Amino acid sequence: MSNPLAAPRAGSRNKQRSNFELYGWLFMRISGLILVFLVLGHLFIMNILDGGVQRINFAFVAGRWSSPFWQVWDLSMLWLALLHGGNGMRTIINDYAERDQTRFWLKMLLYVSTAIIIALGTLVIFTFDPSIG
Amino acid sequence: MTSEEFNVAITTPGRSLRATPIGTLYRGGEGMWTWVLQRITGVSVFFFLFVHVLDTALVRVSPAAYDEIIATYKTPIVNLLEVGLVGAVLFHAFNGIRIILIDFWSKGPRYQRQMTWVIAAIWLLVMIPGTYFMMIHTIDALFGSTT
User: Fold this and answer.
1) What span, in angstroms and rounded, lies between the C-alpha atoms of A44 and B42?
2) A119 CB-side CA count, 13 A
3) In this predicted structure, what is the pLDDT of residue B9?
4) What does the pLDDT read at residue B69?
5) Which residues, in sequence order, are CB contacts of B51 under 8 Å at separation 6+?
6) CB-CB neighbors (< 8 A) of A35 in chain B
7) Which of A35-44, A76-85, B3-12, B87-96 has the lowest mean pLDDT?
8) Rounded distance, CA A86 to CA B147, Å?
9) pLDDT at position A60, please?
10) How many domains is chain B built from?
11) Distance separating alpha carbons of residues A89 and B107, to the nearest angstrom
12) Whether pLDDT at A14 is above 80
């Protein structure tokens, strides 16, 4: 006699299962660890070292971005922080937005706005002109 | 189970009263509250990130436009908000390391409670001098002598 109850998720067993959430989980830990150094270094330099926020102006930014080291630092921080934050927001939307439509549109808004901010920040770092104005 | 039976069950001799159910990490106690704080600090920092990329983008407009927006960051109230931001980032970072240790270190789940108090101590240790050095100019401008 065959078992009258279907095994849990029997239907999905044959389907191609995505590892997206596993990679997302791993990405949060790896990017988080790198961001600890990038962001805490950034906050220390910008807010505490040598007068902190009071010394920041256009000339200060120009001086920093004349070095490829700080360009790479800021670019890595921009991408990692926004992808890390974006994935965190995606998790929160999935947890709390119960209606399918609400969840879909909130995530669309998140993806589009995050992509725009990443693109804008990248553009600013790559096209910065110290002799502007 | 009625509440009377439940009371009997948890006060059975030989069993210790626990604040959180056995075998859970994220229900009740330190495990839950750090999880809540991780979400709140994460969302706050994410929204600030949008603002911060936008204000920095003004370097592509003109030096004057950038200097003007940066001037608001130097005012006493926004300076205080920056201390809050740094506090949120520091908690998120330290608790993130704690989460990594819980997930990857074999003894992590056993020591998660102790690790909570370790990160709380480190947070205070960094925030006390950090707040002072971040606000040194504001403190001087508000309360310093004018001579």
Assistant:
1) 19
2) 6
3) 44
4) 96
5) none
6) 93
7) B3-12
8) 50
9) 95
10) 1
11) 29
12) no
The answer to whether the CB atoms of B64 and A43 lie below 8 A apart is no
Residue A16: what pLDDT?
A: 74
Domain annotation covers residue B4: no
Its domain, for residue B58, covers 24-143
Shortest CA distance from B104: residue in chain A: A29
- Mean of the pLDDT values across residues B9-27? 58
Note whether residue B2 is domain-resident: no
Q: Which H helix or E strand runs over A27? A: helix A20-47
Q: Mean pLDDT, to the nearest integer, of A17-42?
A: 96
Q: Which chain B residues are Cβ-neighbours of A57 within 8 angstroms?
A: 63, 66-67, 70
- pLDDT for the residue numbered A2: 56
Which residues, in sequence order, are CB contacts of B120 under 8 Å at separation 6+? Answer: none
Any idea which architecture A21-127 has in CATH? Up-down Bundle (1.20)
Is A79 within 8 Å of A118 (Cβ atoms)?
yes
How large is the average pLDDT for residues B29-47?
A: 94
Question: Is the pLDDT confidence value at B4 over 60?
Answer: no
Q: Is B95 on the interface with A (CB under 8 A)?
A: no
What one-letter code names the amino acid at A15? K
Look at residue A116 in the predicted model and tell me its pLDDT.
98
CATH code: domain of residue B52: 1.20.1300.10
Cα–Cα distance for residue pair B54/B42, rounded to 1 Å:
19
A82 touches chain B (CB under 8 A): yes
- Residue with tokens 């994935």, as numbered in its chain: A87
How many whole angstroms separate alpha carbon B20 and alpha carbon B3?
18
